[in-house]
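**Polypeptide and fold**
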Amino acid sequence: MFLAHILLTGVYGGALMKTAKKIMVTGNFNVLHPGHIRLLKFAKTFGGKLSVGVFSDRIAESAVDSPQEERLEALSSINMVDECLLIDTSLDEFIQAHKPDIVVKGKEFETLDNPEEVALKSYGGQLIFSSGNLGATGEPCNKDQSEISQSARNFINKFVKRHNIFVPDILNLVERFSEKKVCVIGDTIIDEYVDCFPLGMSQEEPTLVVTPQETKRYLGGAGIVASHASQLGAGVHLLSVAGNDPARDFAASVLGNYGVNYRFLVDASRPTTLKQRFRSGGRSLLRVSTLSQQAISLQQQEKLYNEFEKISNSIDVLIFSDFNYGSLPQKLVSKITMLAKKNNVFIAADSQSSSQTGDIGRFAGVDLLTPTEREARISLRNNDDGLVVLANRLIEKTGSKNVILKMGGDGMLIHSMQAKGIHPQTETLQALNQNPVDVSGAGDSLLVVASLAMSIGAPLSTAALLGNIAAFVQVGRIGNKPLTVPELKQVIAI
C-alpha cells in the first residue's frame, strides 16, 4: 500500500531540505553501478537537495529489464539522494513541472541533443556535464570488513536471483574446469616480498633505514595465471620469455610443482622480470622492479609462434597475460589470435598498463577482456565518458564480445554484446572483500576463473560472479598463490 501510494504521487523516499537550490539527475538506472554513484556524488557537490528522476517502465520500454519499483528502491537507499521522482511524461514536461536549478548529466551527452535544455533555459536553469574520470570515486567502503559484508551478501543474493544462478550449477561448473586444456602466453614475473624492521632515519641524509628480516618469493604474471588454471584442474601449457638467471630457475621450479607444462624461450639479453616489495608492518615502503621493456627479437617471436602452433589444435582456452614488457609484440599477438580463432579456441586477454604505456585495445576480436578502468581509459584516451559508455566503446574498438571492467574496491562492471534482447547486458558486482590483505593477483584469479567458466558455456554474469569469488579468496592472503577448487567451493557454499 505504501509503495503504491508513493508511485501514484511520483515521489519515493527522501527528506526535504531547507534550501532553494534543487539539483537533478535523470535516467533509466536499469542496473545501479559505480558510474551512477559518481554522477550523483558530483551532482551533490553543488549543494542543496538532490532529486533523481527515474523513467517509468512505460517511457523506458525495452531499454530496461528491471521494473520501476526496483530501480526507485535502489536509488532511494543512497544517502546522498534526497528524493526520487518517477518520470512518466516527456522530459521537458517533467523539467517544467519541477524546475530544478541544475540538471547534471554524464560527459558523453555533451555533444548530443538534450531535450531538457530548452525547458531549463526557459526559466534560467543550468545543464552541467560531469566527467567520468578517475578523480571521482564512489561512496567510501567500510574498511573494517575482513569477510563478506552483509551488504555484499544481500547484493549477491539479488544478483543470483535475477540471473537464475543456483549453487549446484556453480559447483558443477567448477568441477568441469578439469575438462579444459589451457594455453597461457605472456610475461612471467617473480614477486619478492622483503619484510623489514625499521631502524629509523639515517643521520647522514633523510633516508629510512631498515633491516631485512624475511624474504618470500611468489610466481606472478603469466606464471601465476598458468598456475591458477593448473591447480583448478585444467591441463596447462605456458609459453613465456625469460632471462638466463636465478629468477627463471625459481619460476621453473615453482611451475613444475604446480603441474604446469612450461616452455621458456631464454633470452640472455633481458632479465626475468623481478618485482621487489620492501614491507614493514604490513605496508610497502619501497618497490624495485628489474625488467626489460624492449620487444623480443623477430627470431624469438617466430619461435614462440611455432611453439603455440604445435598445441593450437589441442587446447580449449588461450589466455594472454600481458604486462607490456615486450614479449607480446602486436604482429605476434595478431598471428596467434588468428590461429586460435581458426581452431575455435576461447580467447581472453588482460593487459596491464604502466604509467601511460599499454593498450588492452590491441587484443582485437577476443572473447573476453578484463582491464581495469584506468587501463580502459588509457587504451581509449578517454577520461570523460561514464563506465557503461567506456565499456561499450572498448567493445566497439576491439570487436571483442565481453568486457569485465575492474574497479578495485568499487567492484566490477560487466558488459556484453551477446546478451539476448536489443540492448547489451550491463551489470555490476560489488567487491566482496573490503579489507584486502594483499591485492596482488586479484585480477589474475578473476581472469582464469571467468575464462574457464565461459569456455564451458557459462554466461558472462555467472562467469563474473565466479571470478568475483576467486578475487575475494585471493586478496585475503599475502602473496599471489594459486587457487584451488576446495577454496572456491568453500566460499560458494557459504
User: Anything to note?
Assistant: Residues 150-186+220-269+295-492 form a domain with the UDP-N-acetylmuramoyl-L-alanine:D-glutamate ligase fold (CATH 3.40.1190.20). Residues 1-20, 134-146 have pLDDT under 50 and may be disordered. Residues 442-456 form the longest helix (15 residues). The longest strand covers residues 181-201.
